[in-house]
Amino acid sequence: MTDRYASFVQSGAGRALVKRLGLPDPPRLRRHRPGDPLLPGPALLGAATGGRLVEPVGKLLTAAGVELREPGGVAPADRFGALVYDATGITDSTGLRQLYDFFHPAARSLTPSGRVMVLGTPPGECADPREATAQRALEGLTRSIGKEFGRGVTAQLVHVTADGDAGTLTSLEATLRFLLSGRSAYVSGQVVRIGAGSATAPADWDRPLDGQVVLVTGAARGIGAALARVLARDGARVVALDVPAAGDALADVANEIGGTAVQLDLTAPDAPTRLAEHLATRHGRVDVVVHNAGITRDKTLGRMDADRWDQVIDVNLSSQERINDELLARELIPAGGRLVSVSSIAGIAGNRGQTNYATSKAGVIGLVDSLAPALRGRGISVNAVAPGFIETRLTARIPVVIREAGRRMNSMSQGGLPVDVAETIGWLAWPASGAVSGNVVRVCGQSLLGA
């Protein structure tokens, strides 16, 4: 679907009009292309006094080919691809001044689509209330920067456990490589938690899913098709699943990526058993399960019939639970496995006329919250993504005024693309992301809804 306003704004006449009238100004976003460097320029790396992550982060970024600069003497002409700050040393509110001292002189030095990343300690792990207070304050900083810096700049807060292990460091590297790259173009204002856990760095970061068997449901079109393509590009053997009615489109996607197609209605009583038997027979396991299949049946609650309610809950939530139960009971998801579900911003903020859909998507968040600790002992991570306004054939049907509001009411002033959701799920699926679990990451351009 073409965003004609964004195309006009990027023309000469459009830019002049936007500046004169103060209209939304959608920037060109830096998206990932194989072979791109991690950043388009050097990174400015700083730390609060006593920061525990600045040294390992510096080594990880250097190994990733990033040129590092240290604070002090930032010149007006300097341009940075990222500002990275280790705030783990801030132990009370007076220490927050160090954030100003780092970001103030560098605020205008970021390149378009630059990246801001602040590293902190989970407030629940802090030694005393003052430290927890200061660490919680970091969310206000990063979310405000995401709304303030503009030009496609994203800002994130990454909480890293102080009780980490080798898996923590590997997942920190994976998270750096995702959030600093063009893969995270439409992800901003998020808080990502990295705990302890098993994680394996790939031999080649350009193929971080090499050899992994990945199941993608709802793979025939839209976000699901983009998912299949991105995961295959990253080295996965993709099992693409969709309903029989979408068989032709599903076969096209599977053939394009060299994957396999499975036609199956996930709401059928025998669907979990049939899917488990297929995976066991053809692959012997499934390393990553991506629950993307979903439907909408919109009506206000007072006008909604029971079938609309039941269908949405069954497809979007209950079928995920049944599939998970069957695959886990048969131990087809091995240690190091990944469960990734697609929620929605509607599950966070609600949406008029979508009580059934919002209920199902909030339930997906509940699934993550409950399963992540339960499966930690088996070495299986559980996460979700929550897309905002994504340009698909479904959003193309939305009335034009509502559609334009959805596009503009975020820090990027534009809708996201299916590939933005796919790249985020890809990162959560990486073997290197094993210590990233229990997260719900919004892919919404930092939408004003639910912020």
TrEMBL record:
One of its GO terms (molecular function) is oxidoreductase activity, acting on the CH-OH group of donors, NAD or NADP as acceptor. PROSITE patterns: ADH_SHORT. Belongs to the short-chain dehydrogenases/reductases (SDR) family. PANTHER family: 3-OXOACYL-[ACYL-CARRIER-PROTEIN] REDUCTASE [NADH] (PTHR42760:SF78), SHORT-CHAIN DEHYDROGENASES/REDUCTASES FAMILY MEMBER (PTHR42760). InterPro entries: KR_dom, NAD(P)-bd_dom_sf, Sc_DH/Rdtase_CS, SDR_fam. It holds the Pfam family adh_short_C2. This is 3-oxoacyl-[acyl-carrier protein] reductase. It comes from the Bacteria. Residues 212-388 form the Ketoreductase domain. It comes from Micromonospora krabiensis.
